[in-house]
């Protein structure tokens, strides 16, 4: 029996691909282990998969800026490498698949020390810091955007496309309407700030709601602890986060306002939802979302509004314009050819395993 060790975490975006792969491994009779952090979102997301053995290791943030924590973090990372090395030596996986995030770096190094092959997946157009550190230890780097190859050692890059969770296509608009108690005929605007919410978008939506409510019914995924009870409109429904109900809400949405996290935007693309993207700025992230959004804009899948230009009025104007041209966006998205990404990833992981078959 083949054994795979998965890793990745820190935000939902770094766990989604791993979760989508688990049923594929199960189908082939592989055993699956996961190394994540003690308190990260990956622990909660993996917990329902009872047949996946979860191991936690110490993690330190690999900070891009100076701060007193910097002094402690190298020790935490070193401890994480030691723990990951020991877990991998004991569990003896045939291959490690890493999705990125801080927790993945010690795991990749631990795998290399045990001579276990490593395959990496990158969701964004340019590789994140964790993946950049891990790439020298990996056999192959799978990319979501074709452009990413320019940022990598050519021999290692494999363009596989985006993994979109199967259940997202199974949503029912009617159930979404019942959940939100939307009874009007007006179009539905879905606002999604990424897995952690987006404070600046939430504040601007609050200021723009007077105008937005005239044309849309609005469902707003605000992020944990970010629902503002003072925003009250008859057809405005805020939630902190949706899990099982998300497919139904997506099915009901006519257009979407979102950050430009890679998983989210490929989900909207696969469901043909015209999108207005407000990418995280270079200061908030590393500029990856700006590049993700720019690539989608060039393909004609979205409009982009930079955060510095976002006011209540520019936001409402952009959303009205997007809705008015929704058919043109949809027909361009129809042309996008969805690759069989999950299968390609599985095959690459299988080929890298010490005991293929
Ligand atoms: C702040 C930060 O570092 N963001 C990064 C993080 O974003 P983040 O984790 O927000 O990433 P994504 O947009 O890629 O993924 C969010 C995921 O959460 C799901 N979801 C969201 C809201 C909700 O209520 N329910 C729900 O299920 C979405 O469907 C999606 O699958 O990883 C992405 C992929 O590497 C990067 O592009 C982002 O720059």
UniProtKB/TrEMBL annotation:
Cellular compartments annotated: Cell membrane
Associated pathway: Cell wall biogenesis; peptidoglycan biosynthesis
Positions annotated to bind UDP-N-acetyl-alpha-D-glucosamine: 11-13, 165, 195, 289
InterPro entries, alphabetized: GlcNAc_MurG, Glyco_trans_28_C, GlycoTrans_28_N
SUPFAM superfamilies (alphabetical): UDP-Glycosyltransferase/glycogen phosphorylase
Family the entry assigns: Belongs to the glycosyltransferase 28 family. MurG subfamily.
HAMAP family: MurG
Protein's name in the database: UDP-N-acetylglucosamine--N-acetylmuramyl-(pentapeptide) pyrophosphoryl-undecaprenol N-acetylglucosamine transferase
């Amino acid at each position: 029996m083949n054994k795979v060790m998965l890793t990745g975490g820190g935000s939902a975006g770094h766990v989604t691909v791993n979760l989508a792969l688990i049923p594929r491994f199960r189908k082939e009779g592989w055993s699956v282990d996961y190394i994540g952090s003690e308190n990260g979102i990956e622990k909660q997301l993996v917990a329902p998969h009872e047949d996946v053995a979860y191991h936690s290791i110490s993690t330190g943030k690999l900070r891009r800026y100076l701060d007193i924590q910097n002094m402690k973090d190298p020790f935490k990372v070193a401890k994480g490498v030691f723990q990951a090395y020991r877990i991998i030596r004991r569990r003896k996986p045939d291959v490690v698949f890493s999705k990125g995030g801080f927790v993945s770096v010690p795991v990749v190094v631990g795998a290399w020390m045990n001579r276990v092959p490593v395959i990496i997946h990158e969701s964004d157009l340019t590789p994140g810091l964790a993946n950049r550190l891990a790439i020298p230890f990996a056999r192959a780097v799978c990319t979501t955007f074709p452009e990413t190859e320019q940022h990598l050692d050519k021999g290692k890059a494999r363009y596989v496309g985006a993994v979109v969770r199967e259940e997202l296509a199974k949503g029912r608009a009617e159930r979404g309407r019942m959940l939100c108690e939307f009874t009007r005929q007006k179009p539905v605007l879905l606002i999604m700030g990424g897995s952690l919410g987006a404070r600046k978008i939430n504040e601007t939506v609050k200021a723009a709601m007077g105008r937005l409510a005239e044309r849309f019914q609005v469902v707003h995924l605000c992020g944990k602890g970010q629902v503002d009870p003072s925003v009250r409109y008859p057809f405005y429904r805020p939630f902190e986060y949706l899990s099982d109900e998300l497919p139904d809400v997506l099915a009901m949405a006519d257009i979407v306002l979102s950050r430009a996290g890679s998983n989210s935007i490929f989900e909207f693309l696969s469901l043909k939802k015209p999108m207005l993207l407000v990418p995280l700025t270079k200061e908030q992230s590393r500029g990856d979302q700006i590049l993700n959004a720019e690539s989608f804009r060039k393909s004609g899948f979205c409009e982009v509004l930079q955060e510095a230009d976002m006011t209540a009025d520019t936001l409402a104007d952009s959303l009205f314009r997007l809705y008015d041209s929704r058919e043109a966006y949809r027909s361009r998205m129809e042309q996008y050819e969805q690759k069989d990404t999950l299968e390609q990833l599985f095959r690459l992981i299988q080929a890298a395993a010490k005991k293929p078959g």
